[in-house]
Specification:
Elements lengths: L12 H5 L13 E8 L3 H12 L4 E4 L24 H8 L1 H24 L7 E7 L6 H14 L5 E4 L1 H8 L7 E9 L2 H14 L3 E3 L6 E5 L2 E6 L2 E10 L10 H6 L1 E12 L12 E4 L6 E4 L4 E5 L12 H12 L8 E11 L6 E6 L2 E5 L5 H16 L4 H7 L9 H21 L1
Parallel strand pairs: 1-2, 1-9, 2-6, 3-11, 9-16
Antiparallel strand pairs: 3-5, 4-5, 7-8, 8-9, 10-13, 10-14, 11-12, 12-13, 15-16
Length: 428
């Protein structure tokens, strides 16, 4: 029987095309180390790889298998900059700090590609991203954004597209214009997860799957992470569980909320298809964003149904096909070979959450749909912090990220109401 993640619905196209997916043992017995990492996604595995290569004794535990969460199941788009546009960050923090945050994100992009090349990880990188307006009144913002990126942030790779150019590049007339970014692209995320784990293990990190953390306690200069079959004692701890933290650590849970996102993969569309002839990935201006791209073998990978309630939809295929048909009527009956979902972590302002939640314990997450490149780089920045340079991680720690309102009891219902309202706004 093919493996089915116990925490994320459906089997992804990534799982069937990633090649060999090594299994790692469960922890059995106590361990002592320099750094314990909780969470085997992009953040934790990247931190483990960089720390181990620098000579640290690292133990990493994952409750299920590496890549079962958002890291192995996401849309694969790198994006550019932080989740918010650079000019929005400038309005809040001033040009100097906004530029520093943008430059950090650009370094994250370069780091991901360099890390993959250095460690010989074939991530199926494909260049280009289109960001498109689903309402006419947003078009001027996209035009201004392209000009601002070149003139104020030194990024000349974004160009404005009018409705005609957008239609040609999308193969759909449902959008009113947008931007084209030739300085970024998209990848096969599970291949990166698998390769990063191999790099970390090869550097000497001790990696354990199917090992949930049952508690984290910090005191007396030590951090103790308990698991079902052993306790890990360390000098420092990184929590990198993002949307899958549950009640493990209350501060993170108050600031990072899980939302479900679902993707479908079609059969290969063939060389005659007019869908995305340039091979770019796409994101649109909806608050409940639609994101899609073509794979190297010509399938349309389409994500667009975020779910804020607890229950997963019974049939991902039906909902995804309906959204595909809105943009590409000729695909209304297309066969969808895979439908899957997972949970991403969002914060109130859609900015990443980095905080020392107890002595010597730093939690990192809340990438809000912009985590493919940021999470890998934040793992590197955490390693820098352990090795004595916290300055660059501090840029993210100092961002204003308030907790979700409502306390533990009402947080999820309030989020559901708020985001349902935003979804309604997308349609009117």
């Amino acid at each position: 029987m093919p493996y089915q993640s116990p925490v994320s619905p459906g089997r992804s196209w990534y799982e069937d095309t990633a090649g060999s997916r090594p299994e790692y043992p469960a922890l059995d017995g106590d361990r002592q180390c320099d750094v314990v990492i909780v969470g085997g996604g992009f953040t934790g595995l990247s931190a483990a790889a960089h720390l181990a290569k620098a000579g640290s004794n690292v133990v990493l535990i994952e409750a299920h298998r590496f890549g079962d969460g958002a890291s192995g199941r996401n849309g694969g788009q790198l994006g550019t900059g932080q989740r918010a546009w650079a000019e929005e960050m400038e309005a809040e923090y001033g040009l100097s700090r906004a530029k520093a945050l943008f430059d950090l994100a650009e370094e994250a992009k370069a780091h991901l590609l360099e890390f993959a090349a250095l460690n010989r990880i074939e991530i199926d990188y494909m260049p280009g991203q289109l960001s498109v307006a689903h309402k006419q009144r947003y078009v001027d913002d996209y035009k201004a954004h392209a000009e601002i990126m070149a003139s104020r942030f030194g990024y000349p790779h974004i160009s404005f597209m009018d409705a005609k150019e957008a239609a040609e590049r999308l193969g759909s007339t449902r959008y009113f214009g947008g931007t084209r970014d030739t300085g970024t692209g998209h990848i096969h995320p599970l291949k990166l997860v698998i390769g990063t784990a191999k790099a970390a293990a090869g550097a000497g990190a001790q990696l354990f799957e199917r090992t949930p953390a049952t508690g984290i306690v910090s005191g007396g200069g030590k951090v103790r992470v308990t698991t079902p079959k052993g306790t890990i004692t360390a000098e420092k701890c990184l929590i990198g569980v993002n949307a899958y933290g549950g009640t493990l650590e209350p501060v993170s849970a108050a600031h990072i909320m899980p939302i479900g996102s679902f993707i479908g993969a079609t059969v290969p569309l063939g060389s005659a298809s007019t869908v995305l002839p340039g091979g770019e990935s796409v994101d649109d201006s909806r608050f409940v964003v639609r994101y899609f791209r073509k794979s190297k073998d010509g399938r349309l990978l389409f994500g667009g149904r975020e779910v804020y309630a607890v229950n997963d939809p019974k049939d991902i295929h039906i909902h995804i096909r309906r959204q595909i048909a809105e943009l590409y009527p000729e695909l209304k009956d297309v066969e969808i070979t895979h439908g899957w979902g997972g949970y991403v972590g969002i914060t109130v302002p859609r900015k990443p959450f980095v905080r020392e939640v107890m002595p010597n314990v730093i939690s990192v997450g809340g990438y809000s749909g912009h985590g493919v490149m940021l999470s890998n780089f934040f793992g590197k920045l955490y390693a820098e912090t352990v090795l004595g340079n916290r300055d660059r991680l501090k840029l993210i720690e100092d961002l204003k990220v308030p907790p979700f309102p409502g306390g533990r009891r009402f947080r999820a219902p309030l989020l559901f109401l708020a985001l349902s309202w935003f979804a309604l706004r997308d349609r009117i």
